[in-house]
Predict the structure.
Amino acid sequence: SQTIHQWPATLVQPVGSPLSLECTVEGTSNPNLYWYRQAAGRGLQLLFYSVGIGQISSEVPQNLSASRPQDRQFILSSKKLLLSDSGFYLCASGRSSYNEQFFGPGTRLTVL
Amino acid sequence: KQEVTQIPAALSVPEGENLVLNCSFTDSAIYNLQWFRQDPGKGLTSLLLIQSSQREQTSGRLNASLDKSSGRSTLYIAASQPGDSATYLCAARGNQFYFGTGTSLTVIP
């Protein structure tokens, strides 16, 4: 099965500062990759997904962006964080529409 | 747009009890349905995946069923244990995964 790594595990950043969250995947090749945000008491919101290197689809317009510089690396970024960006960010991987989706351990982001 | 609902939002049961968690979805055109477990502050752990052509899947004390025509899935947990305490999420896969908001389960020793 796949193993997904995320770092950092926790992050506290001031409003207006930049952001870079990293996700790497082991145990598979050419996966579909996903970034989700989970706000307190709410469900998972899909932010971005990627079906290959350099291919990014955005589900929710906002001040976040994603990049996929390598097959098994997915990065979530922001130039200027907002208070509303606080939340639990999860990276996920799946081979296709018919396969399981696997999740990383998540990054807890607090914007002050 | 697909909407996924999980009822109840929270459930508390004594240890040893069998229980059923419910998941309903509005669009039956799905590839599969996946059940996850999430411990506080942690990522999601995959429990069971049911393809759209299947009726149920079993893993240990867990059994998940799928009825596409009625837009429902259930997760049955047999002989519950305190270690089963967690939030359980279902996700219906269409062009993307659509998640419910989860059922928070507490198993009382």
User: Anything to note?
Assistant: Residues 32 and 93 of chain B are 5 Å apart (CA to CA). The radius of gyration of chain B is 13 Å.
